[in-house]
Design goal:
- With 139 residues, the chain is α+β, with helices and mostly antiparallel strands.
- The chain is built from 4 helices and 7 strands; from the N terminus they run H-E-E-E-E-H-E-E-H-H-E.
- The longest helix is centred in the first third of the chain and has 17 residues.
């Protein structure tokens, strides 16, 4: 699945996600808003997620495409972002990449939740980032 198809599917899914108030069948889905690293404009994307204690884990798989998704590149430049899901509501979060044993344990859980992730990793030479979204502390 290439970038054009991914973008087209996202354009189709977004209004359905909004109309259904995030209550879709299948793996849990959230909307992530990032700040565009070059445009400075807010960008939104729908992603599958795994609840992991107070954190949410998302996968920068981009369908196994050879480049990282734009939303992950935006988070590398500005990790403060926000999310919304039907189960969790709205949250201000900060993004960080999972590493080591924690990453490997969570990767197995993610594959159990959504098996195509394994194929995406096989399709690309890049290591697919697992991104922890941790609630930000209130000021």
């Amino acid at each position: 699945m290439g970038p054009r198809l991914i973008k087209a599917l996202t354009r189709l899914q977004s209004p359905i996600f909004t109309m259904m108030r995030g209550r879709l069948q299948g793996p849990p889905t959230l909307r992530l808003w990032t700040m565009g690293r070059t445009s400075g404009q807010e960008r939104a994307v729908l992603l599958l997620y795994l609840d992991y204690g107070p954190r949410v884990i998302v996968v920068a798989s981009y369908g196994g495409y050879s480049e990282h998704p734009q939303w992950w590149k935006n988070l590398l430049a500005e990790p403060n972002c926000r999310i919304w899901s039907a189960a969790r509501g709205a949250e201000d979060v900060v993004a960080s990449e999972l590493e080591g044993e924690e990453r490997e344990a969570i990767w197995e859980r993610l594959i159990s939740m959504y098996s195509p992730y394994a194929g995406y990793q096989e399709k690309t030479s890049r290591r697919i980032p697992l991104v922890a979204l941790t609630p930000r502390e209130s000021d």
